[in-house]
Design goal:
It contains nine helices and five strands. The chain is of the alpha+beta class and about 280 residues long. Among the domains are: about 30 residues; about 160 residues, Glutaredoxin (3-Layer(aba) Sandwich), CATH 3.40.30. The chain has a five-stranded mixed β-sheet with strand order 1-3-2-4-5. A hairpin with a 2-residue loop joins strand 4 and strand 5.
Length: about 280
């Protein structure tokens, strides 16, 4: 879902279709002026329109005769043309060879000093930019997160980075602050999991989860009230936006971007190719 949604302007105007009305020109009538020649009994008088009609018929007949003579002299002409046309229509269709290879772009995503889960030397580093209030992020956490780590034991290092979409998720920033404050007492990932399992966030929820995990409440509440980690979270978000990330969740598998709450199979396809060395470095 978008971080800073750019206004989209939809036009209600359909392309203008000019109605072109052609002027209908009525044919002029041929005004015949029949003249009677009583003294010329042996002559036949034609109207001009009759004469043109007869002339048209004769010209048409002459054209047919000429065509018969020409084609009759080359009996293979028509057949050859038909054979050529048939050959073009029934000939094999040859597809142009595909020479362009898939393009892969790796992004340089810093991972130091961010909360990480898994071996530091794991062959796969999976960086997640996410939002605790984002429903798609919660879905990925519920459906993919644990099965993915279980499918590659010891091979994935998951790094979590914050991208709270504050314009549409009013509690996302506070949730990220609460997780960081819980991290001071070494329960970041447990608190992290509780936030993603919650349907409703807010200060009462943050306090409840801290109590359930047995945190020092005075220290925890002071951390939240002082907004101790707000600047660090904002810096994290700014990095993501400047990189071009505009939706959550967004992932990077060894620098290769995967956008959205993709299913487990999609992650496994990319990770398997990466482990086999099939994707250019």
């Amino acid at each position: 879902m978008p971080y800073r949604k750019k206004p989209t302007i939809e036009s209600d105007n359909e392309p203008a279709i000019e109605s072109v009305t052609e002027q209908v020109i009525e044919p002029e009538e041929l005004l015949d002026d029949p003249q009677i020649f009583p003294d010329q009994e042996d002559t036949v008088t034609f109207k001009r329109s009759h004469f043109y009609a007869v002339l048209t018929v004769l010209a048409f007949a002459a054209g047919i005769l000429l065509g018969y003579v020409v084609w009759g002299m080359d009996p293979g002409g028509a057949n050859a043309l038909n054979a050529q046309t048939a050959g073009q229509a029934s000939g094999p269709v040859v597809e142009a060879p595909v020479t362009q290879q898939a393009q892969y772009k790796r992004y340089d995503i810093p991972t130091d000093n961010f909360y990480a889960l898994g071996p530091a030397d794991a062959p796969i580093t999976l960086v997640e930019f996410s939002d605790y209030e984002c429903p798609f992020c919660r879905r990925w956490h519920a459906e993919v997160y644990k099965p993915l780590l279980a499918a590659y034991p010891g091979k994935i290092r998951l790094v979590y980075r914050n991208l709270p979409l504050t314009s549409i998720h009013p509690d996302a920033l506070a949730a990220a602050e609460a997780a960081m404050c819980a991290g001071e007492q070494d329960v970041y990932w447990k608190y992290h999991d509780k936030l993603f399992s919650s349907e409703a966030l807010g200060n009462s929820t943050f306090i409840q989860y801290a109590q359930e995990l047995g945190l020092n409440m005075a220290v925890f509440e002071a951390c939240i009230n002082d907004h101790k980690y707000q600047k660090a979270i904002q810096t994290d978000s700014d990095f993501a936006i400047n990189l071009g990330i505009n939706s959550t969740p967004t992932f990077f598998v060894n620098g290769l971007a995967l956008v959205g709450a993709q299913p487990l199979d999609v992650f496994k396809q990319v990770i398997d190719k990466e482990l086999r060395g099939e994707i250019p470095k």
